[in-house]
Each structure stands twice: as structure tokens, then as C-alpha cells.
Design a protein that fits this description.
13% strand, Aspartate Aminotransferase, domain 1, 41% helix, 387 residues, 12 strands, alpha/beta, 7-stranded mixed beta sheet, Aspartate Aminotransferase, domain 2, 2 domains, single chain
Length: 387
């Protein structure tokens, strides 16, 4: 007798497509001698003082459960970081939770708010994990392409989206942006906040790249919409701590309390050793990103200029470590096929722009979170390919 157990799987799970950026990177990663400008993985080590704090915690046998929201010392350090850097005021006891990276923060927030048929506005191109998490929870995605406006959401397009979807429950913002590297000035943030303040939309703002900006100072939208914003941040990008899995979410106490219910059920608590390291990073490493930013900016400037010379038009990113470049008109405009072909023939790995939703097709994302040597060799190979 053949039994069909797969039919018992939740329909939302069966219908959810995982983001193909990871799978694509693994696929082309099998190409010999490939230079990978694919995933956003800082090529710097975690700062030594942060590692020392973790080692000390291990030696002190700090290896037991913490409070489900995170050690209060870690939360205090995170709240102080947000205050000192972005002029944000959160009570660490009631308004901030430590999570297993921003991905977990995103999942618990989506689960707390989104049910079957709930609409969510997402400016695109956008990090594709957002789509997958909303689909998993029955949400309906409302994509707003930012391509016509140099990959920045304008108040006019935001107003139009709200008018056309008056029952939308949430909007997701991400800046500096993955995949475009674009971000907003304080004046632009104020303009978007003015539109959103007239609504009851929950504003979910993923600001994990806030410490990686070039020639501009990051302004959080939570500064202007504290009562309706759930803010995400963490240490993965700013302190090269992707594997430590430290994220945070912060917001109004009544909303944080509800989201934290989901967090407790899916996580119990974040790894204790990582929390000791995070306390040190937040408290005594507030400028740890500065040396990385200097190097990233050099790479950004070089790659931006060289790509434009080759016909890959791109806006100069103000943050993160990605360039979103338009495929030259005389080359294959299907971004997936183009990236696959470049990987096999030129041995340069990039991510298809189509992976990031509406407005991304015809583009490619390149990460400069790798050495200048690798970037220069990749450019050399692309030159040969284009010619």
C-alpha cells in the first residue's frame, strides 16, 4: 500500500518557494575557479575584543539559558547603541528583544501580524526572504517597483500603493538596500514618514546595514514613527558576525510583547555565548565598522566606475556592499540565463536581478564584500566576456 504523507503538509509550506539566491550561488559555485560576487558575507574577521568576550564567557561557564528576550545586559547595550547612533529611545526591559539574526526577527514579526489574505506592501527590488516568509503565513504581497525612481521609494508611489490597497496591514522597508545599495536622506525619510503617519500600517524597517554607509549618515524611520515601527538591526554586517546569529527587534512595548510570544515559542533564547559577545560589540565596539567602511568604499568606487565603462549602468550605492547593475542592451536580458552564462564562460559569479522581484529583471547584483584583488580579476574577466 502506498501512503501519501506529503498531502498532510501544510498548504502554505507547500506553496512557499525558498529564495533562489542561495540555491543559485551554490549552483554556480561548482564552476572551477569562479570568483564569487554573490552572497553578502563580510570578508573581515569578527573584532578581537568581541571574540575575547565570548572566550571569557565560555571559560566562566556561562552556558545556560538566558531570559527569553535576551540577557538584560545585552539588551541594555543594544538600546544604548541605538540611542547613541540613531537617537532612538527604547526601554531594554519592555521594548527590545535579542533574536537569532534578523531572519528570525522577521519571521516572528510576520507570524505575529500576518494571516491568510493580509496584504503587505514591499518596495522592490527587495530581499527575497521577505516574500517567502509572507507566503508561508498566507500573506499577499503588493510589490511597488522603485526602478523608475532610481531604486528609491517616493512619497507619491507610496501614496498610490496605499490608495490602491487601503486594507494593507504592513509595509516592509529595507535601507540601505539589499540588493541595490541605495538609501534615504533624512529629508526623504521624513517625507515617507509623513505619508505613513496618516495610516495605521505597521512599518517594519530592516536597517541591518545601517552602519555601512558612505558619505551619508543613516536616519532610522523609527525616529519619526516610533508608535508604528518595528525596527530590525543587529551585528551580522556591522561587526562581521554573520555566524554569531545576533539580531534585535525593537518597537512599542505593546507590540513587542506580542511578537515576543512567537520568538519564545520558536527560539526559547539566543545562544548565551553569542549574547556575551553581542554585549561587548554593542557597548565597546560602536565604531568597529569604520575600518570596514573605508575598505568597502574603495571597492565600491572601483567597481561602480569599471562596470559603467563596460556598459553595466548602475547608481552609486550609498550603503551596504552591493551594486545593482543593468545588463548591457546587447547582452542576454534574462538575468538568470545571463548570470549562468557569465559564471560558466567568464567564471564570475553574480546574482540575477529577477531574484529580487518586480523591477529587478534585466539587472544583476554584485557584492563587493570580497578582496580588491578578487574584484579587479572579476572586472578583467567581464571585460573579456563583454568584448
Amino acid at each position: 500500500m502506498t501512503r501519501d504523507f506529503i498531502s498532510k503538509v501544510n498548504n502554505e509550506v507547500k506553496d512557499t518557494q525558498l529564495p533562489d539566491i542561495y540555491g543559485f550561488s551554490e549552483q554556480i559555485g561548482k564552476v572551477p575557479d569562479l570568483i564569487k560576487l554573490t552572497l553578502g558575507e563580510p570578508d573581515f574577521p569578527t573584532p578581537q575584543h568581541v571574540k575575547d568576550a565570548a572566550i571569557a564567557a565560555i571559560n566562566d561557564n556561562d552556558s545556560h539559558y538566558t531570559a527569553t528576550w535576551g540577557r538584560i545586559e545585552t539588551r541594555k547595550a543594544a538600546a544604548d547603541f541605538l540611542k547613541n547612533k540613531y537617537d532612538l529611545n527604547y526601554d531594554p526591559a519592555t521594548q527590545l528583544v535579542v533574536t537569532n539574526g534578523v531572519t528570525e526577527a522577521m519571521y516572528t514579526t510576520v507570524k505575529a501580524f500576518i494571516g491568510e489574505g493580509d496584504e503587505v506592501i514591499i518596495p522592490t527590488p527587495a530581499f527575497p526572504v521577505y516574500d517567502s516568509l509572507f507566503t508561508l503565513n498566507g500573506g499577499e504581497i503588493v510589490e511597488v517597483s522603485t526602478q523608475p525612481d532610481n531604486f528609491l521609494l517616493t512619497p507619491e508611489r507610496l501614496e498610490e500603493a496605499i490608495k490602491n490597497h487601503p486594507n494593507a496591514k504592513m509595509i516592509v522597508l529595507n535601507f540601505p538596500s539589499n540588493p541595490t545599495g541605495r538609501t534615504y536622506s533624512e529629508a526623504q525619510i521624513k517625507a515617507l514618514a509623513a505619508v505613513l503617519a496618516k495610516t495605521d500600517l505597521i512599518v517594519v524597517s530592516d536597517e541591518i546595514y545601517s552602519e555601512l554607509t558612505y558619505g551619508t549618515t543613516h536616519t532610522s524611520i523609527a525616529k519619526y514613527l516610533p508608535e508604528q515601527t518595528i525596527l530590525f538591526n543587529g551585528l551580522s554586517k556591522s561587526h562581521a558576525m554573520t555566524g554569531w546569529r545576533i539580531g534585535i527587534f525593537a518597537g512599542p512595548a505593546n507590540l513587542v510583547e506580542q511578537i515576543a510570544k512567537v520568538h519564545e515559542l520558536v527560539t526559547t533564547s539566543v545562544m548565551t555565548i553569542s549574547q556575551f559577545a553581542a554585549e561587548e560589540a554593542f557597548a565597546n565596539g560602536q565604531d568597529d565598522a569604520k575600518p570596514m567602511v573605508v575598505e568597502y568604499e574603495k571597492r565600491r568606487n572601483y567597481l561602480h566606475e569599471e562596470l559603467n565603462k563596460l556598459g553595466f549602468e548602475n547608481e552609486l550605492p550609498e550603503g551596504a556592499f552591493y551594486i545593482f547593475a543593468k545588463i548591457p542592451a546587447h547582452l542576454n536580458q534574462n538575468s538568470y540565463d545571463f548570470c549562468l552564462e557569465v559564471a560558466r564562460e567568464a567564471k564570475v559569479g553574480m546574482i540575477p536581478g529577477g531574484s529580487f522581484g518586480k523591477g529587478g529583471e534585466g539587472y544583476v547584483r554584485l557584492s563587493y564584500a570580497t578582496s580588491m584583488e578578487n574584484i579587479k580579476e572579476a572586472v578583467s574577466r567581464l571585460k573579456k566576456y563583454v568584448k
